[in-house]
Amino acid sequence: MRVLFFTPPARVHIFAQVPMAWALRAAGHEVHVANRPNMMDDVTRAGLAAVPVGPPFDPGAYIREEKQESLPWESWQEVLEFAELRPERLTYDYMHAVHTAWTLVFQGISPPEVMDDLVGFARAWRPDLVVWDTLAYAGPVAARACGAAHARLMFGLDVIGRMRERYLDAVRRRPAELREDPLEEWLGPVLERYGCAFGEDMVMGQWTVDPLPSSMRLAVDHHYVPVRHVPYHGPATVPGWLREPPVRRRVCLTLGLSVREVLGGDRVSIGDLLEAVADLDAEVVATLNADQLAGVSRVPDNVRVVDFVPLNELLPSCSAIIHQGGFGTLQAALTHGIPQVVLPPRAGDWDSRIWARRVQDAGAGLSVPDARKVTAGEVRDMLARVLGEPSFAAGAARLRTEMLGTPAPRDVVPVLEQLTALGRS
Questions:
Q1: Cβ neighbours of 351 (radius 10 Å)
Q2: Which of 133, 143, 253, 352 has the most C-beta neighbours closer than 10 Å?
Q3: Tell me: the pLDDT tens digits for 281-335?
Q4: Which regions of the chain are under pLDDT 70?
Q5: Which residues of 292-315 are buried (b: 16+ CB within 10 A; e: fewer)?
Q6: Does the structural domain 2-228+407-423 have CATH classification 3.40.50.2000?
């Protein structure tokens, strides 16, 4: 069969789909990956066929810098969150505001030019299955327009599905003349333009491929296909120093690629983090680039700074990791059973704070509510506990065992073949 993948224009989102794409390719299926023209190198370097759609993507024009003086201290991303789980906050008015605000974000990820190009390619190539990222709604639109089956491939927790259930239930309780749904109001006319009609599968997929451990997943009444997360961090060379066993405990410090490339800068002080590990009896490998180090006056002697090193190669030699709770980083840590200190940002974090709490609740690490308010001493104390108390390594090992018990991408291919046969129109 033919399978078309589509993600937002960000490397980490593309990387998350590569293992599933290659599992299908290795099973003999044709695979294409569509994205913005400036993301084509990231697709082709993964050995996959790339299809450019829409104009090049400019992160600076899409997400405003939080440091701009014109913005209030609390941006709307901090106030209106799909990741809100507290029942007392989930009123109709709040959930409606969240759907309204984030629909504008989704429109920026899948603007009309992208929609038209992706639908045009899908109608010409005729895929049997479209696999789309949970934020990339041009994917299900293209699938509906060409008659393909379609499924989400999750990037993180299903916070949309979780809130969507409660929101639609609240909408149904309102008078008929007051029932509104911003996502339907956007996607409905878009689909009509291609001769199609809106359905809830446009938001949730006909089914969802989910690489999360079942114990970490949010409870949503939906068809999930579990798959083991396989870390992929792009093409890289293993450096010579990493081929030698560390002479003392090794700690990874990373703030992720999304923060660098899309979200407009770090949400935590680099200087404070380096100060926190300065007196640690360990080798700290910090994946920081020149821009991130620009305001740092001193790099401690026990810190090795590298612009990039594949986490899948680095983490097996590590005793702990400090990070901001990004999906790829956290999943890589779970894959290798590494205890974690999670410092989630407050603004625009999507699901990082939920991840952080769940890692802590599972006994696999420690976290803070807001990384912008944590001190170097607090980070040092958390890291000392994670390294010194065996319970954290045991908790991380339990999650790794759970992940290893989940079907690998190649084992999921027959399931996708069966569901595609049923889902095509």
A1: 24
A2: 143
A3: 999 999 998 888 887 888 999 999 999 899 999 999 999 999 988 889 999 999 9
A4: 60-77, 256-268, 346-349
A5: bbeeeeebeebbbbeeebbbbbbb
A6: yes
